[in-house]
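User: tokens in, sequence out, please.
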């Protein structure tokens, strides 16, 4: 007996919304040779602060093994630096290089223009409501 699902597929809808937004962002990233994952790492490091790799993984939504490969490529490309944590030599801290920070600044402008167009087309109030609803949903699911 087949069970009929009574709700729309929220995870699928959220993924579709993400892909819709990323379809506009990816060309900017690819023009600079960045993957989605590398951009997420640069966004975390964009403040110029150093962070422990576990925090970078959590905030960039990357699993540890994936982060290792992403950081290796980014270090090779001169976008980040890794060092031993002075407080605990078993741990590593990561920071963006001037080149990485320059990419964050440049891409942030391109992405801000896209968000401005999105806000104009979707409506400022609706976009703010969407942000609030997503924040609320995230908080609810973390209980």
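Assistant: Sequence out:
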């Amino acid at each position: 007996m087949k069970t009929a699902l009574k709700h729309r597929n929220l995870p699928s809808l959220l993924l579709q919304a993400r892909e819709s937004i990323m379809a506009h962002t990816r060309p900017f990233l690819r023009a600079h040779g960045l993957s989605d994952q590398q951009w997420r790492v640069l966004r975390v490091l964009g403040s110029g602060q150093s962070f422990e790799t576990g925090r970078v993984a959590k905030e960039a939504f990357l699993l540890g093994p994936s982060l290792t490969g992403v950081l290796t490529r980014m270090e090779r490309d001169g976008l980040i630096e890794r060092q031993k944590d002075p407080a605990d030599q078993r741990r590593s801290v990561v920071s963006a290089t001037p080149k990485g920070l320059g990419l964050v600044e440049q891409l942030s402008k391109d992405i801000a223009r896209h968000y401005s167009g999105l806000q104009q087309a979707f409506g400022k109030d609706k976009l703010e409501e969407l942000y609030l609803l997503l924040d609320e949903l995230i908080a609810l699911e973390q209980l």
